[in-house]
Amino acid sequence: MKESIQSEVFEYTTPICDITWTVTDSVREICGYSCFKAIGEYHGRTWEAWFTPEIPFSDGPWQLTGLPGLIVKAEDKEQLFCFTLKGFNYSPVRSDWAGKGKKTTRQGFLKLKKKDFQNSGAMANALLGTNGTFDIKKKAVFLETDF
Q1: Which one of 14, 21, 120, 133 has the largest count of C-beta atoms within 10 Å of its C-beta?
Q2: Rounded CA gap, 81 and 62, in Å?
């Protein structure tokens, strides 16, 4: 897994977790594909996923996987995060989007990300050359809540 904080890239491995999905009888069309609804829990969030057996890959956005077809839309129960397929583009070149990142662990990265959020007021002062006081009341919201 590769993720970034500011312009710094971090790399860590995380096992692909088996998500226990419950497939419902709801059907809808997304991007021209007939899709089926499934509900599952992953890293502290309940996800509603729409998958299509017409594309027989057991994969999806972010770390969501494990259904009998490509997940083309996924949204968490609180509607804070939503991934939706917009289309496909062919690229003959596979790219490593950010080169090699600093090695860390999943928990280490998430803790750094939280610290970065908490220090955002001080960073704003440094960038702007100011000495303002920031009262950050909003809680950081992350895809994963179990760290």
Answers
A1: 21
A2: 11
Buried b (16+ CB within 10 A) or exposed e, 118-137: eeeeeeeeeeeeeeeeeeee
- In the structure encoding, which two tokens stand for residue 105, read together? 């662990």
20 is written with which tokens? 């226990």
Distance between first and last Cα of the chain: 16
Rounded to whole angstroms, what are the CA distances from 84 to 50, 87, 90?
9, 9, 18
pLDDT digits (tens, 9 = 90+) for 111-142: 888 887 777 766 666 667 777 665 555 555 66
The residue assigned the tokens 């303002």 is 132
pLDDT tens-digit profile of 8-21?
A: 888 878 777 779 99
Torsion of CA 45, 88, 68, 49, to 10 degrees: 30
Dist. CA 147–CA 136, nearest whole Å: 21
Please tell me the distance from the alpha carbon of residue 40 to that of residue 95, in angstroms, as a whole number. Answer: 31
Quick one: 42 exposed, middle or buried, by C-beta within 10 A (0-12, 13-18, 19+)?
Answer: buried
Calpha distance 14→12 (Å, rounded):
7
